[in-house]
Design a protein that fits this description.
The complex is a heterodimer of chains A (207) and B (161).
Chain A (H helix, E strand, L loop, with lengths): L9 H26 L4 E2 L3 E6 H8 L5 E11 L3 E8 H12 L10 H26 L3 E3 L3 E6 H13 L4 E11 L2 E11 L1 H10 L7
Chain B lengths: L3 E3 L4 E6 L3 E7 L3 E7 L4 E7 L17 H14 L8 E6 L15 H15 L3 E7 L5 E6 L5 E5 L3 E4 L1
Parallel strand pairs in B: 1-3, 6-7
Antiparallel strand pairs in B: 2-5, 3-8, 4-5, 4-6, 8-9, 9-10
The chains are: A alpha+beta (207), B alpha+beta (161).
């Protein structure tokens, strides 16, 4: 039987939620270590959405967002896209540098910091998946793009578009003092990797 | 009064006279405009992938360069456009992120642009203006009354092609 995202039941969602939860916990811990302050987190939300609807929840196609894009490979393959709205990426940069970014467009230093944030947050997730499933997973160097939400989201939409019209979204909220950081993760394993992942977690119940 | 018609991802729409066709935030997708200047009938398709023949999940014809252009053309002819008079303008096909290990997805934007050009050339519709590739998103607006395609980007402002 062909496995597809349509077959996702509550159990799969719960598993992804738990992975998201632990991932977010790891992310908050590593971020907290990096900036040497307490970072709070909320329980992440997991949603499975129609790719066409994704831009709406981000606040419109023309809204400027920061996207960090990472490939993962090894026992399972796929990509992760982290989207931070402008406010969140401004917040995270001001936490890191101790001052708000001055220009509308980020400089190299700020882009590089976002890359690092993407790296930390994505590794947190990958570590949590890897810890759960005993799968070996590596991640690539992150790539950053600050542009219109629609154009950035076309990337996961297209990648998912080859296999499905649905997309998995994990929403994370981290907070340091008054700075709230809302990170949206689009987790995009290829469809075979989903199978491998669920199988290794012992939840794949058909076939 | 101009009437704004929004074209979503994997979608196509037609307009005439004072209508304005608009697609927001084109990334690696490609926006294709077909236009019959005499009748002032315009059509815009927003495709995501190069070919419906390459993959299994191809029920949405507007998602692919080949089938979307076929369907758009057919709908425009139904509205009274003539295929011989049609011209095309294209925009989009950017590569938003520079790293990708999956070689086949490496530059989907470029693959989309190539597929669109091949399809239009097979149909003998000439592309009179284009703004493609690069690494930035575009918002495009096509004015059916004068055939102008305005392209807006975050870094580089606005231009009309």
């Amino acid at each position: 039987m062909e496995f597809s995202i349509k077959d996702f039941n509550a159990l799969y969602i719960d598993v992804l939620k738990e992975i998201g939860n632990i991932g977010a916990g790891n992310a908050a811990t590593s971020l907290s270590k990096m900036i040497n302050t307490k970072v709070d987190m909320e329980v992440p939300c997991i949603e499975i959405l129609d790719t066409e609807k994704v831009v709406e929840i981000l606040g419109g196609e023309e809204l400027i967002v920061s996207g960090v894009y990472i490939n993962f490979f090894g026992d399972i393959n796929g990509t992760i896209l982290l989207i931070l709205d402008k406010l969140s990426s401004d917040n995270i940069l001001s936490i890191l540098f101790g001052k708000k970014p001055e220009n509308e467009f980020y400089n190299d230093m700020e882009i590089s910091a976002l890359q690092e944030i993407g790296n930390i947050l994505s590794s947190s997730y990958i570590n949590s998946i890897s810890g759960f499933s005993n799968l070996k997973i590596n991640i690539s160097v992150p790539s950053v793009s600050v542009d219109m939400a629609g154009s950035i989201l076309s990337v996961p939409a297209i990648e998912y578009g080859e296999i499905s019209d649905k997309i998995i979204l994990i929403e994370n909220k981290l907070r340091e003092g008054n700075n709230e950081i809302v990170g949206k993760f689009f987790l995009m394993p290829d469809i075979d990797s989903f199978k491998i992942l669920f199988k290794s977690l012992g939840v794949l119940n058909h076939e | 009064m101009s009437n704004i018609i929004k074209v979503g991802m994997a979608d196509y729409k037609m307009g005439k006279e004072t209508d304005v066709l608009i697609t927001l935030g084109l990334g690696s997708c490609v926006g294709i405009i077909l236009y019959d200047k005499m009748k002032k009938i315009g059509g815009m398709a927003h495709i995501m992938l190069p070919s419906s023949r390459e993959i299994k999940n191809n029920s949405n014809r507007a998602k692919f360069a080949d089938t979307a252009i076929d369907d758009l053309l057919e709908s425009m002819i139904k509205m009274g456009a003539s295929k011989n008079r049609l011209i095309a303008k294209i925009a989009g096909g950017a590569q938003m992120f520079s790293v990708s290990l999956k070689s086949d997805n490496l530059n989907i934007g470029k693959r989309n642009v190539i597929a669109v050009k091949e399809k239009l050339s097979d149909m003998r519709i000439s592309i009179i203006a284009e703004d493609v590739l690069g690494n930035f998103g575009r918002t495009i607006e096509f004015n059916c009354s004068d055939g102008g395609l305005s392209i807006k980007t975050i870094g580089q402002g606005k231009k009309i092609i």
